[in-house]
Design brief:
This protein is α/β, with parallel strands linked by helices. Helix content is 30%, strand content 26%. The strands form seven sheets. The chain has a four-stranded mixed beta sheet with strand order 23-25-1-26. It has a four-stranded mixed beta sheet with strand order 2-15-17-16, with helices on one face. It has a four-stranded mixed beta sheet with strand order 4-5-3-14. Helix 5 packs parallel to helix 6, helix 8 runs parallel beside helix 10 and helix 8 runs parallel beside helix 12. The longest helix is centred in the first third of the chain and has 13 residues. The chain starts with a strand and ends with a strand. The chain binds uridine-diphosphate-N-acetylglucosamine. The site of uridine-diphosphate-N-acetylglucosamine has 21 residues, from helix 1, helix 5 and helix 6.
Length: 427
């Protein structure tokens, strides 16, 4: 298994190109299941999760062709996906267990084929992560759903019907699943308390391009008009806001100065405000965002994760890594997921001072971190350890790099090109 080795102490300077969003790409790829016509997606990142989704879709019968985007590596991949005929409505355990987002095929398969069998995702490193909201929403649209042999077995013999459904809790995945189910349902679906993440908005724009009327885009009430069939469409994936925020925190950690090319400040507003309060400058440029911390120490700031537009849970671990070196204390509260503090014991092994109390972690800044051999069981936790390594004395080795590869495209190349002393150790 590959490892990443970092020698801390170098400032990051230069530019980093931000890839297309992983979490936007996955549901957009699934949307191809809704149509027998091709869906062309530009700016798809090259990541292990994308490969897993391609495998899942191929076994459902989707033809997938990939070409390097404009400018080769720099602009990601263009995928052409065509589900002329669905050959299997089963999403097998083997693939679903590798990637929870596989559950997104449930709504699309059910609405098009009137049946679907999707393995339950099972245990997850960041809390229980149930799928009850996906199920309740689809039932409101007329689906019958049972659990058999570890699989969700869903049927809608007469097809799904449009319905009004209010999410009791904001869920990104359940909102996406129901938006896709609604696209081919009979009549109108209204989703209240829907997630408002930019990835949801991106999916809405793509559905509109596919010929599905969607109203209320960007708000907590989405109205989707079911249609009998979808058109061919072409769509460009939004830049990855979590990658943007992650590199902004890495730059801040090293007191560096980097332009995040292709990054969008408007997608990370809450995180940007938090970083500014900590003493980091983020400014829009013609090509993206410039991040600098050239004078003064980092200041401790309190953070609470919340659904969008709040501070993203997917940046919580990275922010904590940054706060380990701040002057003063930072209270970091995780409200979206339970048990999302697995990075804390590893950061502590590097000399961080963090105390967990229920859903909050109190981080008291320390004057230095020391490199160590570390690992994490989730991709954002893994990258937080790499950020800590950038500012630690000596070498930090991050094990289980396959977690990083699920969500960060060529991390070591992107950081290395800005001056980080970082290498991938094969094996
Ligand atoms: C997506 C993102 C993930 C991010 C998360 C929250 C993708 C592929 N993943 O995950 O990176 O961290 O949004 O921004 O886009 N919940 C239920 N019942 C359900 C569904 C969810 O209780 O049926 C709970 C979850 O356990 C969690 C909360 O709702 O506590 C939010 O989860 P959700 O928004 O659904 O996350 P994902 O879509 O899985």
């Amino acid at each position: 298994m590959d490892r990443i080795r970092i020698k801390g102490g170098r400032q990051l300077k230069g530019e980093i190109r931000i890839s297309g969003s992983k979490n936007a790409s996955l549901p957009l790829m699934v949307a191809a299941l809704l149509s027998d016509k091709p869906l062309t997606l530009h700016n798809v990142p090259r990541l292990a999760d994308i490969t897993t989704m391609i495998q899942l879709l191929q076994q459902h019968g989707v033809e997938v062709s990939a070409a390097a985007g404009e400018n080769g590596h720099a602009h990601g991949t263009t995928l052409v996906l065509r589900a002329e005929k669905i050959v299997s409505t089963t999403a097998p355990y083997d693939i679903v267990r590798k990637m929870r987002a596989s559950v997104l095929v449930l709504g699309a398969l059910l609405t098009r084929e009137r049946e679907a069998r999707v393995s339950l995702p099972g245990g997850c490193a960041i809390g229980a992560r149930p799928v009850d909201l996906h199920i309740a929403g689809l039932k409101a649209m007329g689906a019958e759903i049972d659990i058999d042999g570890g699989y969700l077995v869903a049927k809608a013999p007469g097809g799904l019907r449009g319905a009004r459904y209010t999410f009791p809790k904001v869920s990104v995945g359940a909102t996406e699943n129901l938006m896709m189910a609604a696209a081919l349902a009979k009549g109108t679906t209204v989703l209240d308390n829907a997630a408002r993440e930019p990835e949801i908005t991106d999916l809405a724009h793509c559905l509109i391009a596919l010929g599905v009327p969607v109203d209320g885009v960007g708000t907590e009430t989405l109205t989707i008009e079911g249609v009998p069939a979808l058109k061919a469409a072409e769509h460009s994936v939004i830049p990855d806001r979590i990658e943007t925020g992650t590199y902004a925190m890495a730059v801040a950690m090293t007191a560096g100065d980097v332009e995040l090319v292709g990054g969008r400040l408007d997608l990370i507003e809450t995180a940007a405000q938090t970083l500014r309060a900590a003493g980091v400058s983020l400014e829009p440029t013609a090509r993206g965002v410039r991040v600098q911390r050239t004078n003064g120490a980092l200041r401790g700031v309190d953070v609470m994760t919340e659904p969008y537009p709040g501070f993203p849970t997917d940046l919580q671990a990275q922010m904590m890594a940054l706060m380990t070196r701040a002057e003063g204390a930072a209270m970091i509260t995780e409200t979206v997921f339970e048990s999302r503090f697995m990075h804390v014991p590893e950061l502590s092994r590097m000399g961080a001072n963090v105390t967990i109390h229920h859903e909050s972690a109190l981080v008291r800044g320390v004057p230095k971190l020391r490199g160590a051999e570390v690992m994490a069981t989730d991709l954002r936790a893994s990258v937080s350890l790499a950020i800590a390594g950038l500012a630690a004395e000596g070498h930090t080795t991050v094990n289980r790099v396959y977690h990083l590869d699920r969500g960060y495209e060529r991390l070591e190349e992107k950081l290395g090109a800005c001056g980080a002393d970082i290498e991938r150790l094969k094996g």
